[in-house]
């Protein structure tokens, strides 16, 4: 997965495809490996993090019926945290666009999802001066 930091888009796409391919035969193993890699590399630049998140999303979508309930729950939580982290990273440069998109998740009379609130909090901390 270290090759995701390669600047060549073709290499990045090959890594994505390889993770998805491996995820077809061992979805839980790949999801756990991706999760562990993201945890160990919490400073990974967001474009490279996105490659791994995209692969995780594809593996989940293509294998949802095969996943154990506990794996699915853990992956969803971890995936949401990683996605929130990506939004916060992007928000350091494009705060208005991130805020605009995040605000679309608020609906009258419905409590917002925990990760939406956490993303707002982290955006304010990372952009507070």
From TrEMBL:
UniProt source species: Pterocles burchelli
Domain of life, per lineage: Eukaryota
InterPro entries the UniProt entry points to: Maestro_heat-like_prot (IPR045206), MROH2B-like_N_HEAT (IPR056282)
Annotated Gene Ontology cellular component terms: cytoplasm
UniProt-recorded name of the protein: MROH1 protein
Segments forming domain MROH2B-like N-terminal HEAT-repeats: 19-127
């Amino acid at each position: 997965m270290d090759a995701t930091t390669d600047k060549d888009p073709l290499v990045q796409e090959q890594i994505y495809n390889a993770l998805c391919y491996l995820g077809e035969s061992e979805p839980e193993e790949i999801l756990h490996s991706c999760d562990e890699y993201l945890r160990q590399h919490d400073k990974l630049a967001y474009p490279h993090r996105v490659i791994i998140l995209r692969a995780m999303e594809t593996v989940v979508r293509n294998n949802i019926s095969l996943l154990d309930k506990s794996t699915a729950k853990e992956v969803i939580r971890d995936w949401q945290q990683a996605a929130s982290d990506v939004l916060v990273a992007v928000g350091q440069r494009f705060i208005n666009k991130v805020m605009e998109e995040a605000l679309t998740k608020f609906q009258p009379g419905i409590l917002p999802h925990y990760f939406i609130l956490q993303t707002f909090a982290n955006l304010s901390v990372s952009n507070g001066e």
